[in-house]
C-alpha cells in the first residue's frame, strides 16, 4: 500500500496541484492519478481561508467518488458540512471565504457542490485506519486508546485535538500535546495545528505546514517515510505558527 498523505489544503488549489505534480501524479483526466497506483489521502480541512476552496472540493469529491483517494474530515470540513445542512454556524474563521465563493456560483452549480460535499462528509470515516493498522490518518491526531473507536469523545479529539476547554491569549483553544505521550505502533499522520516544518514526535508526524499562511503545503509518503513540500504563493503570517 503506497499512500501520499496531503496536509491541510485550505483552498490552496494551486499549491495542491503543484505538490501532486511533484509527487508524480498525472492530471490528464482532470484529477491527479499516479502511474504506479499510489493513492492520495487527505487529512481534512480542504477549504476556508484560501482562494480556491470550491475547486478543491470538486477535485476531492471526484477522487473519492471514483475510489481514487482517501479522505477524513477536519474541523473546517465539519463546519462547512453543518453550513450546507442549514444549521446555524458562525461564518467566521475562514468559512466566510468559502461561502463568498459558493454564493458566486449559479444555482445549479451550488446544488452540485453542496450535495457533493454533504455526500463526501457523510460517507467518510472519522479517521483512516490503513495498511492493517500500521498507518492512521487523522485530522488533529488520535490517542492510542481511541484507535478503533468512534464515540463522541473520539470525534471531538480527531477534529479539534486534545482540547482542555480553556483558551489561549489569542482566543484559540488550548490543547495538550498528545503526541508527546503517544506510545503506539501505528504511524499517525495528522495536521490541524500549523507548524513551520513537519513535526515528528514519537511515531507521529504533523504535516500541516501552513500553506494558507504563506509557508508550505506538505505531503507524507508512506511507506517511504518521506516528506515532500512546495512553497505557498500566499503572504507569510508568522503569528499563525506554533513552536
From TrEMBL:
The signal peptide stretch is: none
Pfam families tied to this protein: Metallophos (PF00149)
Q: Which GO terms describe its molecular function?
A: phosphatase activity
The GO cellular component terms are: cytoplasm
In what residue span(s) does the Calcineurin-like phosphoesterase domain sit? 1-195
What InterPro entries has UniProt attached to this entry? Answer: Ap4A_hydrolase, Calcineurin-like_PHP, Metallo-depent_PP-like, MPP_PrpE-like
The record, for NCBIfam families, names:
PRK13625.1
Report the protein name in the record. Answer: Bis(5'-nucleosyl)-tetraphosphatase PrpE
